[in-house]
Amino acid sequence: MPAIALSPQHLETEMLPPMDRDEESGYASASSSESSVPDVFFTKPHLTFLNRQLQHLEPQDILQWCITSLPSLYQTTAFGLTGLVILDMLSKMNIPRPQQVDLIFLDTLHHFSETLALVDRIRDRYPLVNIHVYKPAGLDNPEQFAQRYGEKLWETNDQLYDWAAKVEPAQRAYRELQVNAVLTGRRRSQGGKRGDLDVIEIDEAGLIKVNPLANWTFQQVQDYLKAKDVPYNELLDRGYKSIGDWHSTQPIQAGEDERAGRWKGQQKTECGIHNPRSKYAQFLRQQELQKQEEALQKALQSGLKIEA
After folding, report:
1. What is the CA angle 294-295-299, rounded to 5?
2. For a designed S-S bond to 161, which of 30, 153, 290, 295 qualifies (C-beta 3.0 to 4.6 A apart)?
């Protein structure tokens, strides 16, 4: 299958990139050399059309479309309820091995112990599923994380925390696994910025994000898990509905949005993975410029002292 290359530029034009054609037939085929096969991309009208059609389908039908249409497809999950439903649905589909969907789990080193215990239970329940675990670069435990970044980085610099614990590991996973598309567990009923969620989205880097259960409610998700006896996080029985890192997740009250327990009392509603990547690129650039400025000031001060 050809690799998908989706970017804002691809959404603005319908021009196909130049390619070498077979001299006899004049067409490229699956047996043609990689350089002769054009990239697959969505135009804006095509993306709009797909969202209009897919939103009326059941999640299993959306998943089937993804498997047959999107190469290098993975599921990103922290093993929340919706992600577990997607995982179970995939396990019950007749998918040939090369097309089976592997999981990407971002171990921030700050998950609840109940979440990590659930990962082990999932491995036992779904032994054929490959789970790729990505941690903050070069780190294996919370102590190492604190040693590198200081205590409670999520309080002192939440943008840097999001980058180090989630965004950078996610981008590293996408790069190393050559991911073109991911399945996510986001739903409109979760509230916040997710209220107008499309089934298919494309981020600034061209990554396709598919939300198969975008139309489902929390009750539908919960009913499915109970009916299929799917393992779930024990914290859900203690008032939690959306579970992230232990330091930024609380139980919710009756009538609150599902994600009201995430970053309670803050304006923040997303961890960074589903926000524009350019925000974090700019943040890193600012950090680098600040370091360069500090180094320059030190060098100047050192030079002045020597002359004096």
Report:
1. 120
2. 153
Q: Strand (E) positions, the chain?
A: 73-76, 102-106, 131-134, 181-183, 200-202, 208-210
6 SS3 class: coil
> What is the set of active-site residues?
271
DSSP for 212-253, written as a single string = TTTT--HHHHHHHHHHHT----GGGGGT-SS--BGGGB----
pLDDT tens for the chain, 308 residues: list them.
444 444 443 444 333 444 443 444 344 445 545 444 445 578 889 999 999 999 999 999 999 999 999 999 999 999 999 999 999 999 999 887 777 899 999 999 999 999 999 999 999 999 999 999 999 999 999 999 999 999 999 989 988 999 999 999 999 999 999 999 999 999 887 766 666 789 999 988 889 999 999 999 989 999 999 999 999 999 988 878 778 898 888 776 666 666 555 555 555 454 555 455 545 556 665 666 778 888 888 878 776 655 55
Any idea what the Cα angle at residue 77 is, between residues 263 and 101, rounded to 5°?
165
Alpha carbon distance, N-terminus to C-terminus of the chain = 68
Q: Note the pTM of the prediction, 2 decimals.
A: 0.75
DSSP one-letter string for 146-168: HHHH-TTHHHH-HHHHHIIIIIH
Name residue, tokens 């002359």: 307
